[in-house]
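thread: overnight batch results

M.L. [08:02]
morning all. the overnight job finished for the chain we discussed friday. pasting input first so we're all looking at the same thing
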Amino acid sequence: MSKYDVAVIGSGPGGYVAAIRCAQLGMKTAIIEKYNTLGGTCLNVGCIPSKALLDSSHHYEDAVKHFEEHGIEIPGEVKVNFKKMIERKQGVVDQTTKGIDFLMGKNKIDVYHGLGSFKDATHIEIAGEKKETIEAAHTIIATGSKPSTLPFITIDKERIITSTEALSLTEIPKHMIVIGGGVIGLELGQVYRRLGAEVSVVEYMDRIIPTMDGAQSKELTKVMKKQGVKFYVSHKVSAVERKGKEVTVTATNKKDQEVTFTGDYCLVSVGRRPYTDGLKLENAGVKANERGQIEVNDHLQTNVSNIYAIGDVIRGAMLAHKAEEEGVLVAETLAGQKPHIDYNLIPGVVYTWPEVASVGKTEEQLKEAGIAYKSGQFPMRALGRSRASGDTDGFVKILSDATTDEVLGVHMVGARVADLITEAVTAMEFRASAEDIARMSHAHPTYAEAVKEAALAATEDRPLHI
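M.L. [08:03]
and the structure it wrote out:
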């Protein structure tokens, strides 16, 4: 029987990063993955393939709608080769997962393919091509999450689908009904809207991206409506039925009226649930709560001292980069170090176009907590860089403490804000004030100038360019 210092169950961003960091710190490490490829949901059916389709569909939309204004003329009709688009997406996925294989070999991590389950707290059974058992002094559970659904919805994976199937369709829908106005529904909804589908987003809450700042929700709704997406907020879905190639969604609006939507595909994107199926947690004595999340302490240690859990199976936002940080934290804790994560400074991003990015507290959260704050906002349309690229939608908004001027939250909508949000994270990690950001030199012309201008607006209400 092979013995390890650490065994990691699950090879998503949290799991494989945890394994690499453990190996770097001198621990003999194994990683167990039930599927044939490493990388988990993020690399195989999540972050990476969705961004590939977002980029491909964005190129198509630019060619159809924007090339002419840039003086680019294409003879004949611009067409979508959807099969090739899907093939390219899969190529990106394959290349990325092979990169994880390389990293496992480079760091001398033993890879096991098969379903890992606890025999007891120190022994893991692996049911793959052959059955085998390994012994691990410590185990990190990193098995991620699966798409959630509603009790009355039957996901048939053909017409009533989750994000997994939406990434590998064989045709462009005529009318895609999206249940859920969160990150996944909006990103995939925008992909298919760009490609010509009618898209209707049905959301239970009174606004889309309800966990982000209200100003972002308002701006993204405005922009996506302009792009042709239809929104139905404050709608409670009660039934989803399929007849042949037709799907009917029944919902109740805020006036308590029943309304129906008919399309050829229904994307159910109502969130994700922790995935611990088949782990046999009970054999190791590991406890989970009523939501299916594994209970951990501040060191991400379960109630069984040698077993840890990270990522989507525990509390907090289901984000790949959050799982990565937690994987590093556990590895370094096992090595006797004193790592720390500030969960308030884990950024959130929606990869629509314009992109949406946030870090820290929203204006709604500050009001609810009774914290006195200042707000500074600057529109992207006032930037020379935005006008040059034609990306004039959006803004940067900075919230700072009314007394100390410390930055409490930064919320952006605009071109490349998924990358730009890191400036805000860096500033907040060092507890910068809005004035600190305002006094930093920002290259011209860049989208980042909007951050400086928003900081000026928050500091003394004196932006330079509006």
